[in-house]
Design a protein that fits this description.
single chain; alpha+beta; 5 strands; about 40% helix; globular
Length: about 130
């Protein structure tokens, strides 16, 4: 191979390597945020899933424990008035509504969020919550 051809290939290889190494403007979280389903609004009780799944604890008599478990970082769920259970997740861009949901553990609420299901688990990314 001639020196001139080798130089062309070397430049092209360098250009390809540099192009592949440039980060994109979207983070991984931004990229999957566009795939979310449209928001739904549901009513129900915010549960701490450790107590609910472990021994069926819910309702006003369990509220203080639910609040404590939520503050300790136990996973939260929403048991809707029609009996559907959602795992609650925070919005990657704005977790404010999820943080508010933690403070309402044990309460009946109206919640708006994007549903998603994978491997038998249905989740709701919390976008708004009110008592």
């Amino acid at each position: 191979m001639e020196k001139n051809q080798m130089s062309k290939w070397s430049c092209m290889a360098t250009l390809v390597a540099l192009t592949l190494s440039i980060p994109t403007s979207l983070s991984a979280h931004d990229a999957h945020a566009h795939a979310e389903a449209p928001d739904i609004t549901v009513k129900g009780e915010i549960l701490d899933l450790a107590c609910y799944i472990g021994h069926g604890a819910k309702g006003s008599e369990h509220q203080q424990c639910a609040l404590k478990c939520a503050q300790m970082g136990q996973p939260l769920g929403l048991l809707t008035t029609d009996g559907k259970l959602y795992l609650l997740t925070a919005d990657h861009q704005d977790p404010t509504a999820f943080r508010k949901a933690k403070q309402l553990a044990g309460d009946q609420v109206e919640m708006t969020g994007a549903p998603a299901e994978r491997d038998g688990v249905t989740a709701l990314t919390v976008h708004a919550v009110k008592k």
